[in-house]
Amino acid sequence: MGKPIVYGAGYSVYVRIVRLVLAEKGIDCELVPVDVFATDGIPAWYFEHHPFGRISAFEHDGFYLFETNAIARYIDEAFDGPALQPADARGRARMAQIIGMLDAYGYRAMVWDVAVERLEKAEPDEELITGGLRQAETALKVLTSLKAEGPWLLGEQLTLADLHAAPIIAYFVKVSEGQKVLAEFPDIRDWYTRIAARPNFVRAEKVG
Q1: Predicted model pTM
Q2: Domain ends where: 28, 45, 78?
Q3: Domain containing residue 27
Q4: How confident is residue 13, by pLDDT bands cut at 50, 70 and 90?
Q5: Number of domains, the chain
Q6: Given this model, what pLDDT does residue 38 score?
Q7: Of all helices (H) and strands (E), which one includes residue 66?
Q8: Which of 32, 51, 94, 182 is the most exposed place for a label (fewest CB within 10 A)?
């Protein structure tokens, strides 16, 4: 099989998720840079890969996908390497629940309302940050309640849930407020310390 192509920005959480899944499967990829925030707009050609102009998008041997969750599942099932999805229906449901919860309630608060607002804005909106921290606390509380016993979110097996959550939290802890909130949830703090030390995570977090 040919080398997969990932379209998107190296700094993007969702591009990093895809790269991390590929890394855990031992698969190299080509990253085609796409800046959806470019001042001159999204490149016209990119809409052929993602009709909504979001990232990430994916190509493999003439097969095209967009939406990170679909891409991650395809990578796990199409390539050799360690299984990244539970074998049982309840485990897969819990994995999907964690991913969906973070996408719906954690990502925006942790990444945009807290980290990006604090790091990128000359005059951060403190009210927005406060609300984001409050929402992040709720998301981390729920994540703690869903985490199984063991080193990873679903127990002994590293899954797509871990690989989805880690890049989101990596952005959150770029700011001191995020670090303080994460410290209030020791199970998730220790889990993040564990996954952040993995060589594949370190490589996937590198921009470019």
Answers
A1: 0.95
A2: 78
A3: 5-78
A4: very high
A5: 2
A6: 85
A7: strand 63-66
A8: 51
